[in-house]
Amino acid sequence: MFINNNGILFGPAAQLQVGGSFIASTADTIQFSDGFEFSSVNGSTFSPLTSTVPIGLGLQNASSITVQNAGREVVDNIFTDELSPRTGLSVLPNQTIALIGGDINFDGGILRTPGGDVEIGSVANGEVSLSTSIDGLSFDYENVTSFGGLSFSKLSFIETSGAPAGRVHFMGRDISLRDGSLVFVRNIGEGVPGNIEVNASESFEIGPSDFSDALLSGFLQ
């Protein structure tokens, strides 16, 4: 888990080298199951001896998260491996990659987890609960008081294709995909793929492209 309450920027050269799931957040606090709390504002509330798992993130006027890159490949047949870029933020197969923060902006950003789950929650204020099970990580937004904006532009690309394909969940106030940005969940084999779920408290838009009218944005499953 990577926490910075001042904001997070993943630039074009950013890569992840982790052996499991990855969570990045601009939360102010992390709650643990034994009652301890880590504060990114005041670290004195945290016991370095705790070995329990985190169960919640607290956010107050949360800062933004930005993911930048060159975007996906533009090809005639979108149902080919050529669509899948070989750069960007990725984790090992069947793992979860999650971004939880204020406004979240993908500027040609790329996020991939083969057969795993992608969780993107734009939360301005409130608490996000975390839990683990045999199916992986789960996120609960019941105690969120206000959401932020979530935008994908300039050929941004989210992929959970695999055998079976994983799940994608977006949570925010205003959610938009434009400029040929795609969420790609291709199922390989006969397993049951995960769902694509979009929860926008105010608006959801699949918009036009500043590059070409032929570049469509949306979801492929």
Shape estimate = globular
Strand content: over 45%
Helix amount = under 10%
Total count of strands: 19
Order of helices and strands: EEEEEEEEEEEEEEEEEEE
Low-confidence stretches: none
Structurally, the number of domains stands at: 1
Mean pLDDT: 85
Rg estimate, integer Å = 17 Å
Q: Which secondary-structure class do the elements indicate?
A: mainly beta
The biggest beta sheet reads: 14 strands, mixed
Distance from first to last alpha carbon:
29 Å
Number of helices: 0
SSE topology:
Blueprint: E1 2-3, E2 8-10, E3 22-25, E4 29-32, E5 37-39, E6 54-59, E7 65-68, E8 89-90, E9 96-101, E10 104-107, E11 110-112, E12 117-133, E13 136-147, E14 149-153, E15 157-159, E16 168-177, E17 182-184, E18 196-206, E19 218-220
Parallel strand pairs: 1-3, 2-7, 3-9, 7-10, 8-11, 9-12, 10-14, 11-15, 12-16, 14-16, 15-17, 16-18, 17-19
Antiparallel strand pairs: 4-5, 4-6, 6-12, 12-13
How would you portray this structure in words?
There is one protein chain. With 221 residues, the chain is mainly β. The chain has one domain (2-41, 52-220). Helix content is 0%, strand content 48%. It is built from no helices and 19 strands. It has strands at residues 2-3, 8-10, 22-25, 29-32, 37-39, 54-59, 65-68, 89-90, 96-101, 104-107, 110-112, 117-133, 136-147, 149-153, 157-159, 168-177, 182-184, 196-206, 218-220. Strands 1, 2, 3, 4, 5, 6, 7, 9, 10, 12, 13, 14, 16 and 18 form a 14-stranded mixed sheet that branches. The protein has a 5-stranded parallel sheet with strand order 8-11-15-17-19, with no helix packed on it. It is globular, with a radius of gyration of 17 Å.
